[in-house]
Amino acid sequence: MSSDDLPRAPDDAGIDLTGLREEYPRPFTGTLRWTVLAAQVLALVTAVPQLLSGSWPARAAAVVLVAFVVLGVLMQFWRPPATSVSAEGLRVRKVLVPGPLVPWADLARIDVQGRFEAQSTARTTDGRRVPLIGLTRDAAEHLARGIDGPARH
């Protein structure tokens, strides 16, 4: 059992977080992997002739292009988009910077990922929808039961 799966006591809002991990990163699989690979290959193929040419501005542009592609790929691996679950509430990180904390008291419900939805979403008391990036269906159902009874699909 890892430290992420250790049982935790219910928080002040009455949400039982037992068995939940602290963070749910978006899996780096499927279409995203092929898109990133294609972008890398395209950047390298377009940069190689520029790097081999004699003019320094073309070389500099090629180096910058390759550096941006490599940086983008590293960002996806180093800090992938994720949903963090804590006793205070939920926090969604889209790229590198975490979004604002959504306290448990501000959550009206959690809509669990259904057959045609790409991911689960949280609905706040003021009507905003917060996509729960990377949150598994089981974890979303667990949170939905804690917030508002049976999970909605």
UniProtKB/TrEMBL annotation:
<keyword id="KW-0472">Membrane</keyword>
<keyword id="KW-1133">Transmembrane helix</keyword>
<dbReference type="InterPro" id="IPR019692">
    <property type="entry name" value="CFP-6_PH"/>
</dbReference>
<dbReference type="Pfam" id="PF10756">
    <property type="entry name" value="bPH_6"/>
</dbReference>
<feature type="domain" description="Low molecular weight protein antigen 6 PH">
    <location>
        <begin position="81"/>
        <end position="140"/>
    </location>
</feature>
<feature type="transmembrane region" description="Helical">
    <location>
        <begin position="58"/>
        <end position="78"/>
    </location>
</feature>
<protein>
    <submittedName>
        <fullName>PH (Pleckstrin Homology) domain-containing protein</fullName>
    </submittedName>
</protein>
<keyword id="KW-0812">Transmembrane</keyword>
